[in-house]
Each structure stands twice: as structure tokens, then as C-alpha cells.
Specification:
single chain; ATP binding; alpha/beta; ABC-2 type transport system ATP-binding protein; globular; AAA+_ATPase; binds adenosine-5'-triphosphate; ABC_transporter-like_CS
């Protein structure tokens, strides 16, 4: 459930490396408890955007506020309220999972508030990321997907109010992916955590995100719910039917009227009717092709 409070506020963000601009005037907001997915082709600027918001990169221009604070000048207290999932726990191979989480949690205890108990209890946290059976295992014995779950647990140990996830489910098997999606939805629903994630998995974006922001060539080319984007951009549904023993396929904008008309003309002669609405994948591909061809974004 989202409230009106703006937690991420990005206005006119620009990033330049040498003489190359990689982010042009990026503007978006996320509200308290909202899950926002950043989508876009390789090199679109997703990681750069998320790293500026995490306070790990200095922007070239624009205004950025995370929990009301500019990440470029934020202190320890702000950092304790922000969760970042890094892939940096590979070097702690001799540590055990619960032991590492307990150790890292100590740092957050002085940032506990009346509302937010910090740190997250290590046993509850290993359960939340599905690592209970490996809680006493040494990190070097974890599988790739289990290490990635540990990365997520490390990002969560301080019960962050905002969580940044850069391609979080790379290397997850389908079960781990499903559990991770439930974890993120649960964080947003129960803890009102605001989540910004990047992904190349359109299915993941559709399942997880309240809103999707599509970046291409450093510019925002679409911003809305998966349904809004589909309606605004792809617009065409696929209708398949059989008539007089012949299979037909048509792509139409107004499929309901088209189907009415089909039945008016052929009545019971229509069999095996299927209507497929434009998926997020159709929408995304149509959008990226349009941008590549130099057309206006939707
Ligand atoms: N340190 C850097 N110096 C120069 N150019 C950089 C640097 N980091 C990123 N870039 C460039 O900035 C652009 C955006 O990169 P970024 O990593 O943000 O894209 P991305 O959308 O996350 O891509 P991917 O999906 O491949 O991870 C790319 O053209 C990249 O080459």
C-alpha cells in the first residue's frame, strides 16, 4: 500500500563521462512503499542512475533526493536507512551465514527507532531470504543462487526504508526467483519499504513493480504501470480463430469490437477463438524499436 510521501525524487538528472552524456534530464519519483522497476537495453543508464541514488556516484547535474536527503552529501544515519545489494560477500568464505548477518547487524543497532527495530534478527532474516537450512554453512560452500540470497540479506540487515536492487535475481533458479518476488512484495506491503530495482526480466518487472520506468540511451522513454504502458504503446491485441476449417490470425487495436463483428458476421461458425493482449514484452520491444528508429516515445 503506497502513501503520498515521495521517497525518491529525481529531477533533471544528468551524467557525463568525459565528453559523453549517458543520462539526459532523467526525472521520476517513487512514493513510500512503492516498487519501481528500471528497464532498458544494455548501456541505457540503469546502473548509473541507481548508483547516483545510492550515493556511490557523483552526478553531473540535476536534483536528487532519497528519504529527503541528497545522497551526494548524506551521512551515516542516512546510509543506515538505505539498503544496497552488492555482490561483495564472496571474500568472506570462512564466515558462516548467520554469523556474518549478526556481525553486520551490530552496526545498525544505534539507528533503531520507535517504529523500526534495527537490526533485523539474524534467524528471522535467514528465514525471510530462504537460507534457514544454510544458516550455519560457511559462505564459500553456498551455491551461486544461495550467495545471491545472502547478498539480499546483507542489503536488508538494517531494515532499510529504501532498497536498491541492481539485477537482483541473476543466477536464481525459478523457485528462488518466485521466493524472492514474494520477499520483495512482502517488504513493500508489510514494511512499506520503497524498492528500486533494475532488471532485464520483463516478467519480473511485470510481477514485482507497481510502476515501470523505461530508460533508453540515457532518457526516460516511458513511465507507468505495465497495463498503462501496454495500452499507451503497443496497443494491438492478437486475435486467432478458426472459420470454415481455416485458421486466421489478426492484430487489431480494438479486439472487443473486432470479436463482436466476427460473431455478427459468422455466428456459430467461429471456433477456437483466442484473444491475446499485448504483453509487457511486446510493449517493451515496440518501444525500444521506436526509439532506435528515432521516433517519439509514448
Ligand atoms: N565509469 C564509466 N566511465 C565511462 N563510461 C561509463 C562508465 N560507467 C558507465 N559508462 C557508460 O554509461 C552508459 C550507461 O551505463 P550503465 O552501466 O548505467 O547502463 P545499464 O543500463 O546499467 O546497462 P546494462 O544493462 O548493460 O547493465 C554506457 O554507455 C556505459 O558504457
Amino acid at each position: 500500500m503506497t502513501s503520498e510521501r515521495v521517497v525518491l525524487d529525481v529531477d533533471g538528472l544528468r551524467m557525463r563521462y568525459g565528453t559523453t552524456d549517458v543520462l539526459h534530464d532523467v526525472t521520476f519519483q517513487a512514493r513510500h512503499g512503492e516498487v519501481l522497476a528500471l528497464l532498458g537495453p544494455n548501456g541505457a543508464g540503469k546502473t548509473t542512475t541507481i548508483e547516483v541514488l545510492e550515493g556511490f556516484r557523483m552526478r553531473s547535474a540535476g536534483r536528487v533526493s532519497v528519504l529527503g536527503v541528497d545522497p551526494a552529501h548524506a551521512g551515516e544515519e542516512w546510509r543506515a536507512r538505505v539498503g544496497v545489494v552488492l555482490q561483495s560477500w564472496r571474500d568472506h568464505g570462512k564466515w558462516r551465514v548467520r554469523e556474518l548477518l549478526r556481525h553486520l547487524g551490530v552496526y545498525f543497532s544505534c539507528y533503531a527507532t520507535d517504529r523500526i527495530a534495527r537490526p533485523w534478527d539474524p534467524d528471522d532474516l535467514v528465514a525471510a531470504v530462504g537460507l534457514t537450512s544454510r544458516a550455519n554453512a560457511k559462505i564459500r560452500t553456498l551455491s551461486g543462487g544461495q550467495r545471491r540470497r545472502l547478498d539480499v540479506a546483507v542489503g536488508l540487515v538494517g531494515r532499510p526504508e529504501v532498497l536498491f536492487l541492481d539485477e537482483p535475481t541473476t543466477g536464481f533458479d525459478p523457485v528462488a526467483r518466485r521466493e524472492f518476488h514474494e520477499l520483495v512484495r512482502g517488504l513493500a506491503a508489510r514494511e512499506s519499504t520503497t524498492v528500486l530495482l533494475t532488471t532485464h526480466d520483463l516478467d519480473e518487472a511485470e510481477k514485482l513493480a507497481d510502476r515501470i520506468v523505461v530508460l533508453d540511451g540515457g532518457r526516460i522513454v516511458a513511465d507507468g504501470t505495465a497495463d498503462e504502458l501496454a495500452r499507451r504503446i503497443a496497443g494491438e491485441d492478437e486475435v486467432r480463430w478458426t472459420h470454415a476449417g481455416q485458421r486466421h490470425v489478426r492484430h487489431v487495436r480494438a479486439s472487443t469490437e473486432f470479436v463482436h463483428d466476427l460473431f455478427r458476421r459468422h455466428g456459430d461458425g467461429i471456433t477456437e477463438l483466442e484473444v491475446r493482449r499485448a504483453s509487457l514484452e511486446d510493449t517493451y520491444l515496440s518501444l525500444v524499436r521506436r526509439v532506435e528508429a528515432g521516433g517519439a516515445a509514448g
